[in-house]
Amino acid sequence: GAGVSQTPSNKVTEKGKYVELRCDPISGHTALYWYRQSLGQGPEFLIYFQGTGAADDSGLPNDRFFAVRPEGSVSTLKIQRTERGDSAVYLCASSLVPGGGSYEQYFGPGTRLTVT
Amino acid sequence: AQSVTQPDIHITVSEGASLELRCNYSYGATPYLFWYVQSPGQGLQLLLKYFSGDTLVQGIKGFEAEFKRSQSSFNLRKPSVHWSDAAEYFCAVAARFNQAGTALIFGKGTTLSVSS
Fold this sequence. Notes:
The complex is a heterodimer of chains A (about 120) and B (about 120). Chain A is mainly beta and about 120 residues long. In chain A, about 0% of the residues lie in helices and about 45% in strands. Chain A has strands at about 5, 10-15, 20-25, 30-35, 45-50, 55, 65-70, 75-80, 90-95, 105, 110-115. Chain A is globular and about 40 Å long. Chain B has strands spanning about 5, 10-15, 20, 25, 35-40, 45-50, 55-60, 65-70, 75-80, 85-95, 100-105, 110-115. Chain B contains no helices and twelve strands.
């Protein structure tokens, strides 16, 4: 596909359950970002991947959140023991990282997570 | 620490009237600045960006923004608003991890309504 895709588009889960959110970046983009957007707020950075490794995970709120990108393409954000406060739209973005430095990030449509 | 402030939570403009959305940033060095638009159910779309050079930047959909270092501002403007411009607008600054990767720090957004 031409853009960043995220699945599922909506996810409803019960408090305490485990969820996985998937992001498929634009082909060839080596940088991948996860953001979380709560109601009435701007997106907040969670984690950034350069290739397969997490270059910075300083935005992850606690150890219930974890993300992987094992082959340097698709990424999965994993949330354990979900809490109602985790309800938000989770956005994924990708960008090219050429030597010249292109900082434009392309965003997916997001996954709306609702924890009941 | 880097931050972005969008002072106006909600603005209503008549169709055909001019628009200015305010954005103030806090960043120690020369900032990389962005404006994104988010329509309901849609992902974030980049309107324009400022990296260096000319302080007046042109974007898509007839938008422009002016970088004013002395005022730490990057206000978004459009001379004549169309009903389809109704959306949420986010200003963002890039927080550089290293030469290759950046995370975006977003403001809380301004909701634009367009009246007929």
